[in-house]
Amino acid sequence: MRLIKVLILLAFLPYYGFSSHIFGGYLSMVQVDKSLGKFRIGGSIYLDMNITDPNELINLQRISLNVKIFRKRDGALMNSILLPFNSFSDLIYDNPVCAINRNLSSRELRYSKEIVLNMTDYTDANGYYMAWTRCCRSPDLSNIQNPVNAGLTLYLEFPVLQENGKNVDYSSPEFHAPNGDYICINKDFSFNLSAKGVNSGDNYKYKIVTPYGSTNTQVNSSDVVRAGPYPMIRWNGGYSESAAISGNPSLTIDEATGILKVKASTIGLFAFTVQCEQFRNGVRIGLVRHDFQLPVFDCSNNRPSPAEISYNNNVVTEVNFCPGETVVLTTGTTGGNWNFQWKKNGENIAGATQPTFQISGEGSYSVTKSFKTSCEGDTTSLPVEAKSGLDLKLKASKAKICDGETAILTAIAGSGVMYEWYKDNVSLGRNDPELTINKEGLYELRGRTTGSACNGNQQVRIDLIPSPIISGLAPGYSCQGDSVSLSVDNNGNESFEWSYNNTLISNKDLNNIWAAKSGKYSVKVTDKSSKCITISPESVVSEYPGLAIEFDSIPPICGLDANTIQLKAKPAGGVFYLANAQISDFVPKNSGIGRFKIEYALPQGNCLTKKVRIVEVKKGLKLSISSKSIMANRGDVIPIVATADESNVQFKWIPDKWLDNAQIANPKITPLGDIQYKVIATSSDGCEAEENVSVFIGERLLIPNAFSPNNDQINDTWEITGLQAYPEAEMWIYDRWGNLVLYHKGSNLNWDGKRNGEVLTGSYVYQLKPYPKQDYIINGRVQIFN
After folding, report:
1. Residues 48, 64: Cα–Cα separation, whole Å
2. What's the rounded Cα separation, in Å, for the pair 630 and 619?
3. Which of the pair, 518 or 40, is modelled with greater confidence?
4. Whole-number mean pLDDT of the chain?
5. Does pLDDT of 16 surpass 60?
6. Sign of CA dihedral 381, 383, 388, 390
7. How far apart are CA 134 and CA 82, in angstroms?
């Protein structure tokens, strides 16, 4: 009974139960009608046709792919979709002989269905994903552990489909149909696995990621997909996301273009996944994982020379064609020992395997060339860009030419174009793609494709720029010590180079210079736009000889109170200037302190001969004396103090008689007779000041400081002992309020302390001047007691 049950179960197992022949694929989601929420859900799977049973193939084209949609936030099932089979295409190999010899045969099966989604169900900000899973991978994979039980899961993420009550534009990227291909060990290899976008403005970023495995195994091979997360395959040692195919470099992908590159170092079969992430306004909104595999073989180093693509018997890299025109590209050979595979935009074209190919629309066309009877290396030609319409361009080496110069006009177009040149609408009878001209005018290039009415034309105006005109430059005469201005006109778009006696004057990019030396001057004028050049004739500059002028030097002046200086110079007839002001005398108090340039200018024809003197006005020195008149007793030691208004001053007393030091500011004098001194002070900058001091020798005076006019016959009067020696002495006595109490003149002073007959009491101030003609005064106080 058990045996019967097992047989019944085996009878119901599908042919594709283990699915090791499925090696990759991807899912897609294209919006058909935004308002209705209609989408076309698609799935593509790749088959290894060499291990696919014919019955299995038939069954795969009968079944539907069971794709499920889940919510990312919690894995809730949103929808289950059965995608029916739609179409298939075989992957085209560049080198068919090698593909056959190496048992390479791959097919893409495409499944799709249009469905309507309830957009209000798809508003979760975390987004959604759809997935389809299968058991088992090829046992021949080199980079995956236990590939037979690894399985694969196709996966696609998409964003919310409705925001703020409005349906969102969204379609996933769709991958290009890949070429059938293989990698040769230790050879540079590239492979296009890019996708195209449906929504304009979205950006795409590619990277290699670890493939998803599956919960399905050989034992549990059901294709029912469950909510994620999905298990990752486990890499064999030495392999990883960054080295899915080991090499130098290992397998990498350009994140912007989706171009894979590798220089493999190990033979084998290698699985990998390319993840295409979709960005909108800098935010990732979705992704598609594209599973694929590539074999690495030890290839022959014998490779044919690359084919050269020709059009109308000319090797080309660009062709232009008109509507309805037939353009046939050829490899220049009839086939013979070669196989050919034509490509458009990098994708192999089905059935395009002949030496010639008729292009179908604009694009980049190339052809791969391989040996017809042996599996060896192959080569790919340079691409030919095919453009609709006559893309005619005209390039001028110069838009403006100078007198005597030429310009080259060049036609730029694809092959098979006939040219004719015109100037000012008159044919020049020239058909070459290049024309050399030396005259101004409106030039026109007319072109047409061979055997077609596809015409085009381009025009360019060539202007003749006259050489710069040099005007205003004339011979000059300079005065001695002066310079003369040399200048030429400037239109604002010229540069200048001046020369003196045929030697370039540096840093003189000016239209005028000041010539200070006799000699020959010239200028080269260059138009900055056209680079046209004109060199001027030489301009000779001569110098007048100067006159010999005698201008008296002016010694330094000390102080603003110094005397006015009359200015003198020979020959006469010139003018003195101070700060551009005409003067005849120099007045220190008008100029102030400082150094001043006085210029004497003597006319000589159109020139002025000049002589300059510098006059310095210094601050000056102020000197004061403690007393200019001194009364002393014979043999007294008397200090004399001189004070200057600045430091570092030297002093000299004349004569030095009876002085303890005649070189200091405060000497001491011991006079034995009348004498007059002069003190001279000299500052550090040479300014002097002087003062006089008179010293008089007289009798010693004894002046009482009190008396008592009370008629007791003791000190009743105030008398000064020694006053008799000063017959012209004067005495003033004042009370405390400054009122004059007594004035006395003469040597016979005998005051009884009375004023207006009334005896005074208290303290009184006196001033005694022994010599009325001298400044010496004795001051003191006297107290009157009653």
Report:
1. 19
2. 31
3. 40
4. 85
5. no
6. negative
7. 15
